[in-house]
Design a protein that fits this description.
By secondary structure, the protein is of the alpha+beta class. The protein has one domain: Alpha-Beta Plaits, CATH 3.30.70. Helix content is 31%, strand content 51%.
């Protein structure tokens, strides 16, 4: 199992319940693609470097997870169509 991190930026207009719901869906996607969710860091609301979908702020999250080689690709395919997600980046952690 490889170790990965995904950074996700959610729209700032989302309520607390909606953000929690989106995070649960992301965790579900990770487990669906044979991964295990580790630590979730909430970085809070931050100003974006440039405007994305007419929004200038977003909520940042860093999610650590483990999985096989197919887990990141499956997760990215789901995040790509998840509407509240403004941006995401999946990286493999160095050993």
């Amino acid at each position: 199992m490889n170790k990965y991190e995904v950074t996700v930026i959610l729209g700032a207009k989302l309520e607390d319940e909606a953000r929690a719901e989106v995070l649960e869906r992301i965790k579900g996607y990770i487990t669906r693609y044979n991964g295990t969710v580790g630590e979730i860091e909430e970085w809070g609301k931050r100003k974006l470097a440039y405007e994305i979908q007419r929004q200038t702020e977003g909520f940042y999250y860093l999610i650590s997870f483990e999985g096989d080689q197919t887990t990141p690709n499956g997760l990215e395919s789901e995040l790509r169509i998840l509407e509240p997600v403004l941006r995401y980046l999946v990286v493999k952690k160095a050993d």
